[in-house]
Design a protein that fits this description.
Length: 208
């Protein structure tokens, strides 16, 4: 935690970047809901006036804080391509991020939207790493593009569920547990796809 931002003496002026950083630290500790004008002004040692000089409204500031949180997440997984398999490394790091930075994970991936996102939109917020992982899956496991996308989607959904449990402090996972769970899901899904026996099982009424 960057305590210096919270302990600094009052300043006459704050830059846009400084305000974002102070608000980011508030969100990191207590969630984005804590980033309100009055409390932010207290952290800055001023009134809320400097905030509305730099930003049109609090919604604009909160969006900037979310962008800052995404930068933090991207720095967490930026070296993924140095590891094999890269997609498992990303999964492990996501779970670690959700445990170490639960409020930031909630801000990035658990914030309610005015309209629900498609699952694909949520996944692709991970950036270029997704495309790299899919290409590696195609190459290393002789999969078609559609098969690789299905594998990635299924494994990512499983990983996301683990992250939600961790971020909400429902469960705490040891590193070896994370590795085992991700490997089991990946290998099981891969074997099913490669077998050609995957099919959607419909639910039917036994009375029929």
């Amino acid at each position: 935690m960057m305590k210096g931002y919270f302990d600094m003496p009052p300043k006459a002026k704050y830059t846009r970047e400084e305000i974002i950083e102070i608000a980011f630290q508030m969100a990191r500790e207590n969630g984005i809901e804590s980033v309100v004008a009055r409390e932010l002004g207290k952290k800055m040692g001023t009134s809320s006036s400097p905030i509305f000089t730099a930003f049109k409204n609090m919604e604009e500031l909160q969006l900037a804080v979310r962008d800052r949180a995404m930068q933090e997440f991207e720095s967490f997984i930026k070296d993924a391509l140095n590891y094999t398999p890269a997609f498992k490394y990303v999964g492990v790091k996501m779970v670690q991020f959700s445990m170490q930075e639960p409020k930031l994970f909630q801000l990035l991936y658990m914030k309610e939207h005015e309209e629900s996102q498609r699952f694909e939109d949520l996944v692709y917020e991970l950036g270029d790493t997704v495309e790299v992982c899919i290409e590696v899956m195609q190459r290393d496991y002789a999969l078609t593009r559609a098969e690789a996308e299905l594998l990635f989607k299924q494994v990512w959904m499983h990983t996301f569920a683990i992250c939600v449990l961790a971020a909400n402090k429902v469960c705490h996972f040891k590193p070896e547990e994370i590795s085992e769970m991700l490997s089991l899901e990946f290998q099981g899904t891969l074997m099913l796809i490669k077998s050609g026996r995957f099919q959607v099982v419909e639910i039917s009424d036994k009375k029929e």
